[in-house]
Structures are given as structure tokens and as C-alpha cells.
# Entry
Amino acid sequence: MIGFLRGKLVAKAPPALTVDVGGVGYDLEAPMSTFYALPAVGTEVRLVTHLVVREDAHILYGFAGEEERRLFRSLLRVSGIGPRIALAILSGVTVEGFAHCVHSQDSAALTKIPGVGRKTADRLLVEMRDRLDAVAAAGGGSMVLAGGPESEAFSALIALGYKPAEASRLLKQAGGVGSTEELIRRALQGAAPDP
# Structure
């Protein structure tokens, strides 16, 4: 398996790009999120990769970061999701945005991604709910890594034993504005039963 490539970026035309590694040109396909992070043609680039072997082709997919690749691999395990739809999802929403959609069970946001219909969105929400936590644990953190107080408060609530959907609901009720400590305090106050 090819884990990553480091070489000179020779061509980029979404979704395809070519990287020259020691005189060998590797053709890859990548999501738009990776294209936004690519340097200019002719400069060095490092991409983590995933190889898909089919009867008729071997296709190499490239990603700017490990988080994208982990989500891509996890999406491929969802029934009915192939590499094309997984790339479309990563092109249409950030890793953090996808995690938020799943945690808040927002199928409407997922159906705005080309190629993702209502049934596919519902299947993603059901099958990815538990997988996101496993994917995050494999990466050593939470999938909601946008930074800032809200994502830190979300991680803290998960660490306290709240389910992702419940943590999202509590943070939404807390207003989403303030320091991490304030958000956690308001979320926990909202979770406490009335005396």
C-alpha cells in the first residue's frame, strides 16, 4: 500500500493531480478541500494516500491531511458509498462540518452535496454516528477540530460521557458564545434537572 507521496506537483485539474516522485508521475484524485491546500505547480507537495483496487483500475486518492483520509476510509465502509461520493462529501463539507452534521443529525445539509440524496444522507447519519467516535479515537482526538471554545467544550462534554448528539444539543442551548469554561458551565446547567 502507498501511504503517502512527496514530490513535485506537476499538474492539478480537479479532481485529478499528478505528482512527480523521483521521476515517476503518480496520478491521483483528490477532494476540493485538498486542492485548496495545494501549493503552486512546480513546488514540492506531500499527500497522504489511499489506494482503491478494482477489477478494471487501481486508483490512488490523495489528501492534504490524515483527518481527511480517515474520514474517506470510514465513508467507504458505509453501504452504498463509493469513492466518488466520498470525494464529493469531502469536497462539499469540511471534516469538522461533516462531524457536526452527523452529531446534530442534519440530513438537509448533507443533501446539498452533489450526489447525496435523502436516503444516502439518512444512511450516512445512522451508520456514521458511532463510527465518528471510533475515527476520532484512532486520530487521538475529536472529529470536531475546528478549534475555538465551542469545539473544546464539545470535546469536554464527550469526555464527561455525553453522546455527541446530546453534547451538540446542550451547546446549542448554551448559546455558543463565550469561553470554553462558560460554555461547559451553561451546557451542564442546561443538562441538570430542575429542582
About this structure: Residues 140-147 have pLDDT under 50 and may be disordered. The beta strands are 4-13, 16-21, 24-29, 44-53, 58-63. The longest strand covers residues 4-13.
